[in-house]
C-alpha cells in the first residue's frame, strides 16, 4: 500500500508537470527521474525547453521576413539594371543626379582623402623609422592608398552622403504617395527615379575615387617632406616605381561595385519606407548602415580575388 501511494503521488506529480505523457517533455522527465536530478532542475529544463520553442518561432518569423526582403531586393535590382536602357529618355534627370552625387561630393571626398593620406604617412613613417627604412614610406603609402584607403574612404563617404539623400528623398516620396502617382500615370518609378541615380553613380564614382587616390598621395608627399624630412624625389620614386597593373585594377573595379551597392540598397530602402516621417528616418538609417557594411565586405573580396588571381 505505501508503495502504491508513492506511485500514485509520483504519477500525480508527473501529470501535474507533464500533462501529455506521450510528449518529448514526458520522455525527458522519465529519463531524468531515473537519475538523481531533483524536481527543481527538471522544472528549469522544461522552462528552457518552452522558452527555446517560443524563441525559435520568433527566429523563424524573422528568417521568413529576411528571405522575403531579399527576394524583393533581388527583383528590384533586376528591374533597376534593366531600366538602364532608358538612359536617353531620362538624360536630364541623369545630368542632375551626376551633379548632385558627383560634383557636390568633391569637397567631402577631398577633405577625407587628404586627412587619411596625411595621417597614414605620419604613422607609416614613424613605424619604418624604427627599422631604418623611412625611405620606404612612399611605397607603403602608395600601396595603401591606391589599393584600399582611397576606394574605401570614397565608398564610405558616398554611402553616407549619396545613400542618405536617396533614402530620404525616395522615402518621402513613398510616404506622400508620389511614387504611386507615377504608377497611376503609367510611368515606371524605378526607371524614372532609380535608374538615373544608378547610372550617375556608375559614371561619377570612378573619377571621385581617382581624385581620392591623387589627393591622398599628394597629402602624404607633403607630410613626408615636412614631417619626416624625406626628399620629394625619394618619396615619389618609392611610391610610383613599385605600383603594378593589378593595383590600379583593384582601385578601378571597386568604385563600380560600390556604386551599384550604395544606389540599389539606399533606393530600395526608400521605396520600402512606411510609418510616416519616422519611417523615412528609419529607412534612411537602415540604408546607410547596410550599404556601408556591404561596401566593407565587397572591398575585402575584390581585393582578395584580384590580387590573388592577377600575377602582373
Number of DSSP-assigned strands: 0
Give the radius of gyration. Answer: 30 Å
Euclidean distance between termini CA atoms: 91 Å
How many strands, which pairing sense, and closed or not: the largest β-sheet?
none
Topology pattern, helix = H, strand = E: HHHHHHHHHHH
Global geometry: globular
Number of domains: 2
As an assembly, this protein is single chain
What does this entry look like structurally?
The protein is an all-alpha fold and 312 residues long. It has 2 domains: 2-65, no CATH class; 88-309, no CATH class. It has 11 helices and no strands. Helix 2 (24-33) packs antiparallel against helix 3 (39-82), helix 3 (39-82) packs across helix 8 and helix 5 (106-129) packs parallel to helix 8 (189-226). The radius of gyration is 30 Å and the shape is globular.
Amino acid at each position: 500500500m505505501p508503495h502504491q501511494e508513492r506511485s500514485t503521488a509520483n504519477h500525480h506529480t508527473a501529470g501535474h508537470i507533464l500533462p501529455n505523457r506521450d510528449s518529448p517533455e514526458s520522455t525527458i522527465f522519465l529519463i531524468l527521474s531515473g537519475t538523481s536530478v531533483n524536481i527543481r532542475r527538471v522544472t528549469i529544463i522544461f522552462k528552457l525547453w518552452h522558452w527555446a520553442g517560443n524563441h525559435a518561432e520568433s527566429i523563424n518569423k524573422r528568417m521568413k521576413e529576411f528571405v522575403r526582403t531579399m527576394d524583393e531586393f533581388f527583383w528590384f535590382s533586376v528591374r533597376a539594371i534593366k531600366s538602364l536602357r532608358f538612359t536617353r529618355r531620362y538624360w536630364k534627370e541623369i545630368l542632375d543626379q551626376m551633379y548632385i552625387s558627383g560634383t557636390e561630393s568633391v569637397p567631402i571626398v577631398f577633405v577625407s582623402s587628404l586627412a587619411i593620406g596625411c595621417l597614414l604617412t605620419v604613422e607609416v613613417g614613424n613605424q619604418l623609422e624604427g627599422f631604418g627604412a623611412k625611405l620606404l614610406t612612399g611605397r607603403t603609402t602608395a600601396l595603401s592608398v591606391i589599393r584600399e584607403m582611397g576606394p574605401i574612404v570614397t565608398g564610405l563617404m558616398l554611402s553616407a552622403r549619396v545613400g542618405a539623400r536617396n533614402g530620404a528623398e525616395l522615402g518621402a516620396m513613398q510616404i506622400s504617395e508620389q511614387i504611386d502617382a507615377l504608377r497611376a500615370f503609367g510611368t515606371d518609378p524605378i526607371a524614372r527615379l532609380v535608374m538615373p541615380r544608378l547610372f550617375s553613380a556608375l559614371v561619377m564614382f570612378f573619377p571621385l575615387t581617382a581624385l581620392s587616390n591623387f589627393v591622398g598621395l599628394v597629402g602624404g608627399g607633403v607630410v613626408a617632406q615636412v614631417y619626416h624630412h624625406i626628399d620629394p624625389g625619394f618619396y615619389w620614386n618609392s611610391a610610383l616605381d613599385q605600383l603594378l597593373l593589378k593595383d590600379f585594377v583593384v582601385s578601378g573595379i571597386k568604385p563600380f561595385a560600390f556604386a551599384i551597392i550604395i544606389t540599389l540598397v539606399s533606393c530600395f530602402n526608400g521605396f520600402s519606407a512606411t510609418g510616416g516621417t519616422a519611417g523615412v528616418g528609419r529607412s534612411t538609417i537602415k540604408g546607410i548602415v547596410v550599404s556601408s557594411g556591404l561596401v566593407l565586405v565587397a572591398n575585402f573580396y575584390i581585393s582578395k580575388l584580384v590580387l590573388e588571381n592577377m600575377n602582373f
